[in-house]
Specification:
The chain has 5 helices and 10 strands, in the order E-E-E-H-H-E-E-E-H-E-H-E-H-E-E. By secondary structure, it is of the alpha+beta class. Strands 1, 2, 3, 4, 5, 6, 7, 8, 9 and 10 form a 10-stranded mixed beta sheet that branches. The protein is globular, with a radius of gyration of 18 Å. It starts with a strand and ends with a strand.
């Protein structure tokens, strides 16, 4: 098993735009604690923003669904002990402990990360899964760009020609961190 730690939440947006809108997908970056590989998880706007707040140690004025879940667990005498991520695409396993003994629950990977961040518990991934999906830090930006290009090509292939969908050029986009308080700009892409 390899322990992962949350490193950042990034988004690909148009240059000059201050903050990504609600429809823009986020990517939660997890880094192996004792190594150089990264795993990225796709996240919706809310889930990605909630992870970014948790990474920064910030609490929103209104509790998130994750905060409510953790408060409910505590009221029931349950506590999250660990999160197991088999890979970025399959359900994660939450290992809980309570008055009736151990309990496991499946969750979407990004939900499991959000809960792990709020409960300060380890996130584990099997070494073979990390060997398959882990990206060396130096290769992150090229890998993300290649995945983005493949997705755009597939989308273009399945759209009717009269839809007129245009994708922004490479020079119009940038990677940006959404973890407060600063907005770190990634120049690697």
């Amino acid at each position: 098993m390899t322990v992962l730690v949350a490193q950042d939440v990034i988004v690909r947006i148009r240059k000059g735009v201050r903050y990504p809108g609600p429809g823009v997908q986020r990517r939660v970056l997890l880094r192996e604690r004792d190594g150089d590989r990264l795993v990225h998880l796709w996240a919706g706007a809310d889930d990605g923003d909630f992870a970014a707040l948790a990474i920064a140690g910030k609490t929103p004025p209104t509790p998130t669904i994750y905060d409510v879940t953790v408060a409910t667990w505590h009221a029931a005498g349950l506590s999250l002990k660990a999160v197991w991520l088999p890979n970025p695409d399959d359900p994660a396993r939450l290992d809980l402990s309570g008055p009736a003994g151990p309990l496991t629950q499946l969750a979407a990977p990004v939900d499991a990360v959000n809960l792990a961040l709020r409960c300060d518990v380890p996130m584990d991934m099997p070494e073979d899964a990390l060997a398959e999906c882990g990206i060396p830090t130096a290769e992150l930006w090229d890998t993300l760009l290649a995945e983005e290009a493949a997705f755009a090509a597939e989308l273009r292939d399945h759209l009717p020609p009269d839809m007129g969908v245009a994708f922004p050029g490479e020079d119009a986009l940038e990677w940006r961190s959404i973890v407060p308080p600063e907005w770190r700009l990634y120049h690697g892409a």
